[in-house]
What we know:
The chain is an alpha/beta fold. The protein has a single domain (2-186), classed as 3-Layer(aba) Sandwich (Rossmann fold). It has 8 helices and 5 strands. It has helices at residues 13-24, 32-42, 47-66, 82-97, 111-117, 121-126, 133-146, 171-186, and strands at residues 2-6, 27-29, 71-75, 102-108, 160-165. The longest helix is centred in the first third of the chain and has 20 residues, at 47-66.
Amino acid sequence: MHVFIIGAPASGKMTIGQELSKLTGATLFFNHQPIDFALEIYQDYTEEMWEFVRGITFSFLGASARNQRSVILTDVIDFSNQYQLMYLKQIQNLLDDYHQEILFVELETSLEERMHRNRTENRLKYKPLKRNFEVSEREILDTDKTNQLNSQKQPSGLHYYLKIDNTNLSAEEVAKQIQEKMKTIEKGQTHV
């Protein structure tokens, strides 16, 4: 089973993914890996750059599915953007082609907690672009104002979905909740 962790900037997606990877053995491919690579080529956040990032993600996921490798993906989704919601469905459709399941996990985290997490050692170690606090904090505040970073209801058409308020939970606690949901799905005890 695959997992796609969705959340606002600095909500803990990568850190939770790291903990879930330890628990499940799944490979973590967090959203800044292809973004940082793409920015070396494109130098700016253009639509072409985002298309390239999505292509890398689809290629990685397809190769992993063909080789029966479970993966954990992370990303920021604007729930008011229909194209980004279609992207989630396209990810699910790709895995459906390989008869594999994916659990979408949405994190809901307070702005205050995200501002705190923006400066954690783990985040800065793996995300060099976030080391400029002025820029990264402005990004958190700007996206909070301009994007709908949490769903009002579960996006339609996704088979398995879990929403967790992780404001006061450790990454380990959230990873264990996700693992329990995965076990339930694998036993065939739930549809959504």
